[in-house]
Design goal:
The complex is a heterodimer. By secondary structure, chain A is α+β, with helices and mostly antiparallel strands. Chain A is elongated and about 160 Å long. Chain A folds into four domains: about 110 residues, Beta-Lactamase (2-Layer Sandwich), CATH 3.30.450; about 100 residues, PAS domain (Beta-Lactamase, 2-Layer Sandwich), CATH 3.30.450; about 80 residues; about 150 residues, Histidine kinase-like ATPase, C-terminal domain (Heat Shock Protein 90, 2-Layer Sandwich). In chain A, the strands form four sheets. In chain A, strands 2-1-5-4-3 form a five-stranded antiparallel sheet, with helices on both faces. Chain A starts with 11 loop residues before the first helix and ends in a 6-residue tail after the last strand. Chain B is an alpha/beta fold. Chain B has a single domain, classed as 3-Layer(aba) Sandwich (Rossmann fold), CATH 3.40.50.2300. Chain B has a five-stranded parallel sheet, sandwiched between helices. In chain B, helix 1 links the parallel strand 1 and strand 2. The chains are: A alpha+beta, B alpha/beta. At the A-B interface, helix 12 of A face helix 1 and helix 5 of B.
Chain lengths: ~525, ~130
């Protein structure tokens, strides 16, 4: 044990004149209080000196002697070193030369607490004037914290790199053009799509000011951005024309979202542009098609209405002006013609409204569908009875939101199909039933006819998609397609229900309306 | 004899209008044209009291015929009543824009044609020859 020196009691001048022994104790004291692990040992690894930090670090628990520097003097240093690192230490020491007397090595040691401690050793070979090695000096420093911090930093950098790569991948995979800018119009980030639209690559644009890239023409965009940044409110769905780098005119829809940088609070803006040129073109095409369809429907209905009006008027004239020359049967036939004309006139008008295909074009209101079903079934009751069959109709009061002429068409089409595609080997049975659930009515029309072949089931609602196996039977192939359009126009659905036994079953839904009672 | 000019590509419509008009006033000569190509010249040569003009006709439609009548100084103030199967608001405003004196929709019954003839009679004859 070295005695501690009371420096305060020493005069500076005395210190300079200090005798060797005092100087020796002084240096030992400095070395003992040094946080590094310091030791000196002979070329045969015999320890000649260790400081207290060294002794304390390598000493064993509970034995006070073993924690003292004296304990280590004369010991073989290699014994102190962990087995796994002995060979490396010897190898490092053997490489020292007068020309290159210093080297470094790291070692890891598990402390008594179980904690892993990383030490960085500076190994110095001490050579005499002839270049002969006479001793080694080793200074070890605990770099565990530094090492762990470096490791953590490296891991963090690696994670950040992965995150940036992922972000870049995601950004570049987006079909939209994305810019991330500050309020000075500097493009902080952008994706490939955006860079391409500017005729540049990402690297040459990121970090650049758009004024440097495009001169004064950048001002318009900057002003627009500033408006959004200053208002603090996002600008969404702004549609404008633009000329991309390839020169072809197009349309973009742009969203501009302002926000403050989460750390610095600086103003930022995210600009996302989506090319909607194709959508716009389709929209224009659809408008033209709709216009043509509208014109076609309008012309067709007018062309149909003129001869129909004439048939009705001449039937009326026959009844009025030639009544004396017409038999009672003839008058009844004329009356049927007039009824047919009135019915068809209603159909044409409804069809015209329907073809214009806007829900507001059809007068959808509160409708008693039971009355419509009853009317349709009554009109066919006699024919079905003549075939030895029957039609059952629902007893419920079905109040829906709908248009009577159009929905009469749907019910009539389904009932007429049931009659048309009957099985001649058994009496025809048609049942119309209804069930109300979750604010809608589900109407079912089922029969015991020949049914729909499984292969053709997916096409029954297609225009001219009439089941081919029954193609010899009368029918235009429009009926079910029209039913579907009418039901969809009413906000409902229509489907062919797969039946395990004979016949077919069609189901359609309509929104329920409040009963007046 | 007082004359009325009917321009309509549909023969049956011409017949029905003619029949209804003659029922209201038998002392009337009806001149019929199946297209509007000779409208201006016929009005000039025949001097009818009024023209009943259809809209949807192949070739020159009723609006173009009306325009030609209004552009000619001699027929500019000639009474023209559009008689069309169309009940569309757009057609009615177009007729008004081109300077038609009236717009009647072709009826669905002969009774309706009788009423139409009455309206024409009142607007043409009674206005021109007040008692």
């Amino acid at each position: 044990m070295y005695e501690s020196i009371e420096f305060s009691r020493l005069d500076r001048r005395e210190l300079v004149k200090m005798p060797d022994q005092i100087m020796h104790r002084e240096y030992h004291s400095i070395l003992d209080s040094h946080p590094d692990l310091i030791c000196r040992f002979t070329r045969d690894y015999v320890v000649r000196f260790v400081n207290r930090t060294f002794a304390s670090f390598f000493g064993s628990d509970g034995v006070s002697e073993e924690n003292t520097p004296e304990f280590f003097i004369g010991k073989d240093l290699i014994e102190v070193v962990q087995k796994g690192q002995r060979h490396r230490l010897k190898s490092k020491l053997s490489q020292l030369t007068p020309e290159s007397p210093q080297t470094e090595m790291r070692s890891m040691r598990v402390a008594k607490t179980g904690e892993e401690i990383i030490l960085k050793w500076t190994l110095i070979g001490l050579f005499d004037q002839e270049g002969e090695l006479y001793e080694y000096q080793a200074a070890g420093r605990d770099i565990t914290t530094e090492f762990n911090l470096t490791q953590a930093l490296e891991q963090r950098n690696q994670d950040l790199e992965v995150l940036q790569t992922e972000m870049r991948l995601v950004l570049d995979a987006m079909p939209n053009k994305i810019w991330y800018k500050d309020d000075k119009n500097i493009i902080l980030k952008l994706n490939e799509e955006a860079a391409q639209s500017m005729g540049m690559d990402v690297k040459s644009v990121e970090g650049a000011n758009t004024y440097d890239l495009f001169g004064d023409s950048a001002k318009t965009y900057h002003d627009d951005d500033l408006k959004v940044i200053n208002s603090g409110k996002p600008l969404l769905g702004y549609v404008e024309r633009y000329t991309p780098n390839d020169g072809a005119m197009g349309w973009v829809q742009t969203d501009k979202i302002p926000f403050d940088h989460p750390v610095t609070g600086e103003k930022r803006i995210l600009v996302v542009s989506t090319d909607i040129t194709e959508l716009k073109e389709q929209e224009a095409l659809l408008k033209t098609i709709n216009k043509n369809l509208d014109d076609f429907a309008s012309l067709t209905s007018h062309d149909l209405q003129a001869p129909l009006r004439h048939i009705g008027i001449f039937a009326e004239l026959l009844q009025e002006e030639c009544a004396d020359n017409i038999s009672e049967d003839g008058k009844e036939y004329l009356s049927e013609i007039s009824d047919g004309v009135i019915h068809m006139r209603g159909l044409i008008k409804s069809f015209l409204k329907f073809m214009r295909a806007s829900p507001e074009g059809v007068d959808i209101g509160r409708l008693n569908l039971t009355e419509v079903i009853t009317k349709v079934c009554k009109a066919r009751e006699q024919d079905v009875a003549n075939l030895g069959g029957e039609i059952r109709i629902p007893q419920d009061e079905i109040i829906v939101r709908g248009e009577s002429v159009l929905l009469e068409q749907v019910v009539a089409n389904l009932i007429d199909n049931a009659i048309k595609y009957r099985d001649h080997t058994r009496p025809i049975k048609i049942e119309v039933s209804a069930k109300k659930s979750l604010g809608e009515w589900r109407i079912t029309v089922s029969d015991n006819g020949v049914g729909v072949e499984r292969n053709f089931a997916p096409h029954v609602f297609d225009l001219f998609g009439r089941a081919k196996p029954h193609a010899h039977r009368e029918g235009s192939g429009v009926g079910l397609a029209l039913c579907k359009r009418i039901v969809i126009l009413h906000g409902g659905t229509i489907a062919l229900i797969e039946k395990q036994d004979v016949g077919s079953e069609f189901m359609f839904t309509l929104k329920a309306a409040q009963s007046l009672e | 004899m007082r004359k009325i000019l009917i321009i309509d590509d549909d023969k049956t419509d011409r017949l029905l209008i003619k029949k209804a008009l003659l029922k209201v006033e038998s002392d009337l000569e009806i001149i019929e044209l199946a297209s509007g190509r000779e409208a201006v010249s016929t009005i000039k040569s025949e001097s009818p009291l009024a023209t009943l003009l259809d809209i949807r006709m192949p070739g020159i439609d009723g609006f173009q015929v009306l325009k030609a009548i209004r552009e000619d100084t001699k027929t500019r103030s000639h009474p023209v009543i559009m008689v069309s199967g169309s009940d569309e608001t757009s057609d009615k405003s177009m007729a008004n824009e081109f300077g038609a004196d009236g717009y009647l929709v072709k009826p669905d019954s002969f009774l309706g044609y009788g009423e139409l003839a009455q309206v024409i009679y009142k607007s043409v004859f009674e206005r021109l020859q007040p008692e």
